[in-house]
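Issue: copy button drops trailing tokens. Both records pasted manually instead:
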Amino acid sequence: MSDSKSLIDIVKHEQGHFDAESILFLDLNSRNLTDANSLSICRNLIILNLNNNNLTNIRGFGTLTQLQKLSLAKNQINSLDGLQTCENLEILNVAGNNLIGLKSLAPLLHLTRLRSLCLTDRQNNLTNPLCNSSSYHQDVKNNLPNLDVLDNEWLGQGFQERISSLESAIERLENYNYNSKTMTNEKPTIIITRATSSDHSIHIANEEYDELFQSIQMLVK
């Protein structure tokens, strides 16, 4: 399904209409699409999933300036041209494509809000040729210093800030809950030490973050 009419027909079928300006979320996973550039008229899209298709380029995505999360895993994309004007993009998954060399990531240099980038998904055995370089991980971090997460692994600072904010919240709540003081001086402190002392996958980090939230909920009950 490569022509614009075919893609628009799919969206009409799923949305019940095709009022392009009103579409905020689209899941077009596994639709055998070879071209999705006609989605450029959906200017208010916030979340777009195009995983597991046959796309080779996304040049028409430059109009999607409201886009915050874009999933393009398992396609045949060899260039990210078109994303440089997606100024609100925060999460991008392009694992399992044909991106070669750091130059293929050049459009991302303009995206100051980009926090999470996935080029290699080990769990699903998806990667890109540029990931074959032994220094690619460090090279990507050097070129995109605002990233908090690369290939589903925390790079440190983003998670540190989240943990610190929760630690401060726990300390404030302790001042108003003396009966729970012994409990809160043990468990949260152990969690924080464990979470900040070594590299964690994003999944483990989220578990510890959620556990801190549970500690706060126990305090306010």
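Record 2 (pasted manually too):
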Amino acid sequence: MNTPDPCKEKLANPDEVMHRHLLARMRWRGWLKVVTLTMAVDQLLIAVFTFAARSLDPGIGEMPTLIFSCITCMLVSNWLVSDARAAWVSAKSSGYIGTAIDAVKGESVVIAARCRRRWLVVLHIELNPQLVMQR
């Protein structure tokens, strides 16, 4: 089979390469936010869980804390991503998301300042940049 090797393929359009890199950077920034916030909430909840568990049973092992930590990370990250998706849908249907045309940048997405869950909408855009960066 003669399938082209993307690493050896000549880049015909440098704008397309820059576009792909921008999408990757946006996605990376979004997932970094999710991981950072998940770890912060996880540490807080582990401290509370450990205090409560040791108050009830001072001889408790580390396995329950580890299991609690894993489940907490999974639930918090899933909650963030699904809440960001719900914020996007709500903002889109309420008219808080629009487009603006700039002479230099071209068309861009604008999120109204009065949008209550603006940071979650931004997070959803970062996790799914293809929604606003369509060519």
